[in-house]
């Protein structure tokens, strides 16, 4: 295929393909480890246990599926918003190879038990160094393309793209600072409560810089492309952007309420977490107001459903998250199954729905095809939404019951339930979560079939959308 206006799209195809592969691995592992919780006999030591497989699931999902897709769409979007071909196609190709090497090494080392035990930062120092090289290569290519742009206007998506590149670099370098003691083992450069504080400054801002800014960049690009109408307010988007960047960086300690972290740090994190509702919902309203007079496209345009439901789940996340950052609520639901319900509404509902829309829009253009089956797209959408809701709602109910039982006391102040009694009550919910995950997996298999048939040039049954 001839590259449109000299744009470098072959590497975009590669990133889309491999992100889908790693995303499939993540969902398969997610379903399996959900079954391991419901049916403990499925844990097969030493390698096929929940403790070994769970970090592979999160890394394959966040970094393989998430960042892999973001790399694809950053390369695709940046060229078009700057009206400039990619600065270095060769560097982008090397980035694709290194990306897959890093994800594969992450999977192997984690399976072997090489784990730093830091959430979202489990990789031992040699693999972590490769991540740094990968990110530097990626960032240089994007930043240089923006610097050499032919389009003077900086569209809102470019603000989010550049901020995430810088933000991830700062967060990753600080939190992954380590003292190696061997080729396969290192210890954090920080200790005690300082280590915890730095870890959750990183952990929550990884949610900001990896699971918030990139999907927003993609949303702001693909909603107008899909609907054929401009985004409601560029100014609102930019104001919300700067507010989001400023506020997010202070919120990490809300993961450490009721810990030895100083009270003023906890209170600061709690306050900024509540303030985050405003810039987050500015993005939601920007999406909703863009649909004024266009809501009929929710029925007629298969892409719009993914984007609007996605931004809606983002809005729900950014109400639930700040509420969890309040001390009294955190004391009740922290360390319960409420939390994975909250997290997966973001990953399966917000991030993934937006990425599915971007893939459905971009792949037919990259391969000069129409989507193979609109009916399958719609089936994929509804199964994904139903599966995600079953997963999240089940975990919320489980978390509330679990918290109530853990906090129940007798008149003399002793605990009313033993830990084992609370655990036994969770099994039906874990089985329900597995059912939700299986439904989501089925939706993903339908998505895979549709994309493969589209790329291979199967007979199209699609109707041209307004995009």
Automatic annotation (TrEMBL):
<dbReference type="InterPro" id="IPR023616">
    <property type="entry name" value="Cyt_c_oxase-like_su1_dom"/>
</dbReference>
<protein>
    <submittedName>
        <fullName>Cbb3-type cytochrome oxidase, subunit I</fullName>
    </submittedName>
</protein>
<feature type="transmembrane region" description="Helical">
    <location>
        <begin position="264"/>
        <end position="290"/>
    </location>
</feature>
<feature type="transmembrane region" description="Helical">
    <location>
        <begin position="375"/>
        <end position="398"/>
    </location>
</feature>
<feature type="transmembrane region" description="Helical">
    <location>
        <begin position="159"/>
        <end position="181"/>
    </location>
</feature>
<dbReference type="InterPro" id="IPR023615">
    <property type="entry name" value="Cyt_c_Oxase_su1_BS"/>
</dbReference>
<feature type="transmembrane region" description="Helical">
    <location>
        <begin position="341"/>
        <end position="363"/>
    </location>
</feature>
<feature type="domain" description="Cytochrome oxidase subunit I profile">
    <location>
        <begin position="15"/>
        <end position="467"/>
    </location>
</feature>
<feature type="transmembrane region" description="Helical">
    <location>
        <begin position="127"/>
        <end position="147"/>
    </location>
</feature>
<feature type="transmembrane region" description="Helical">
    <location>
        <begin position="201"/>
        <end position="223"/>
    </location>
</feature>
<keyword id="KW-0249">Electron transport</keyword>
<feature type="transmembrane region" description="Helical">
    <location>
        <begin position="430"/>
        <end position="452"/>
    </location>
</feature>
<keyword id="KW-0813">Transport</keyword>
<keyword id="KW-1133">Transmembrane helix</keyword>
<comment type="similarity">
    <text>Belongs to the heme-copper respiratory oxidase family.</text>
</comment>
<keyword id="KW-0408">Iron</keyword>
<keyword id="KW-0479">Metal-binding</keyword>
<feature type="transmembrane region" description="Helical">
    <location>
        <begin position="235"/>
        <end position="258"/>
    </location>
</feature>
<feature type="transmembrane region" description="Helical">
    <location>
        <begin position="20"/>
        <end position="39"/>
    </location>
</feature>
<keyword id="KW-0472">Membrane</keyword>
<dbReference type="InterPro" id="IPR000883">
    <property type="entry name" value="Cyt_C_Oxase_1"/>
</dbReference>
<feature type="transmembrane region" description="Helical">
    <location>
        <begin position="97"/>
        <end position="115"/>
    </location>
</feature>
<keyword id="KW-0349">Heme</keyword>
<feature type="transmembrane region" description="Helical">
    <location>
        <begin position="59"/>
        <end position="77"/>
    </location>
</feature>
<keyword id="KW-0679">Respiratory chain</keyword>
<feature type="transmembrane region" description="Helical">
    <location>
        <begin position="302"/>
        <end position="321"/>
    </location>
</feature>
<keyword id="KW-0812">Transmembrane</keyword>
<dbReference type="Pfam" id="PF00115">
    <property type="entry name" value="COX1"/>
</dbReference>
<dbReference type="InterPro" id="IPR036927">
    <property type="entry name" value="Cyt_c_oxase-like_su1_sf"/>
</dbReference>
